[in-house]
Design goal:
Spore Coat Polysaccharide Biosynthesis Protein SpsA, Chain A, single chain, globular
């Protein structure tokens, strides 16, 4: 662990029973004692049972009773890192597209004012995507880079390290998108908050087993959201917080008894069960 700092490794998963045990075992080769947070949207398979059988004291499982989406899962991982006073949050996919062998390099580049992302589009990197998916991935990242004037070649992947100090300042009421859109918006906010943006080369692999859970139309939604970010930046100054009221971590949900509420359209909603505060 870097300078005795606390790292949280978060996996947002849905129907990953075929991958999850092997993935955890491989993460443990490179992060032996770090806490692994697994947020599992109700999968209707035996994912929960597989995780519980591993009996690793440093694994935390949050089981959500229905599919609430990738966006709220990532917000929940951020709130967990803040509430439990971690120094850094590492996020990665649960399908082996992000190789755990890169975790030490991510940790090495972590810093209190840094944002680190595993990149498919810099020297030394590689991607297994082919055909249309490869074209969409390249074009999507290129457009986001140019439209938002961000000095990164990779913006959409969720293989990342966040400084929790920076996460505490974000306007979470503006982070209500799903999939790629939320990922791009967070990178944009990291730029606006003057984080040091760092790319490390990775080999991005096609999923090991199972099928992608992100709907195809999400690509078009993400492009629309990208334009909205650009337009909003012209007319409105971005807001950040010293005392952040866009989330609440000390109130217990009357339904699921968890304590992770995010502000959305003027109401605080539980990120575990979606109930209003």
């Amino acid at each position: 662990m870097k300078n005795n700092k606390k790292f949280l490794i978060a996996l947002a998963i849905y129907k990953e029973a075929e991958n999850i045990k092997k993935l955890i075992m491989k993460i443990r080769l490179f992060a032996k004692k770090e806490t692994i947070l697994i947020i599992n949207d109700y999968s209707g398979d035996n994912t929960k049972q597989i995780i519980n059988k591993i009996r690793d004291p440093n694994i935390v499982l949050i089981e959500r009773e229905k599919k609430l989406g990738l966006g709220t899962a990532h917000k929940l991982s951020m709130f967990y890192a803040i509430k439990k006073k971690f120094d850094y949050l590492i996020t990665m996919d649960g399908d082996f597209s992000h190789d755990p062998s890169y975790i030490p390099l991510l940790i090495k580049n972590a810093g209190i004012n840094n944002f680190v992302i595993g990149s498919r589009f810099i020297e030394g990197s590689k991607s297994d995507y082919t055909g249309l998916r490869k074209i969409i991935s390249i074009c999507g990242n290129y457009c986001a880079k140019k439209i938002l004037n961000i000095s990164l070649n990779e913006i959409t992947t969720y293989f990342r390290v966040y400084s929790v100090k920076l996460l505490k300042k974000l306007p979470f009421n503006e982070l209500n998108a799903e999939g790629y859109s939320l990922g791009v918006k967070v990178v944009w906010l990291m730029k606006k908050i003057n984080a040091k943006l760092i790319e490390i080369p990775i080999h991005f692999k096609d999923r090991n087993k199972g099928k992608s859970k992100i709907p195809k139309f999400q690509i078009f939604v993400s492009f629309f959201d990208l334009i909205l970010i650009f337009i909003r930046n012209i007319f409105k100054k971005q807001k950040f917080y010293k005392h952040n009221k866009t989330y609440i971590l000390n109130k217990k949900c009357s339904s699921c008894k968890k304590t992770y509420f995010s502000l959305k359209l003027g109401n605080y909603r539980c990120l575990v069960c979606n109930k209003k505060l």
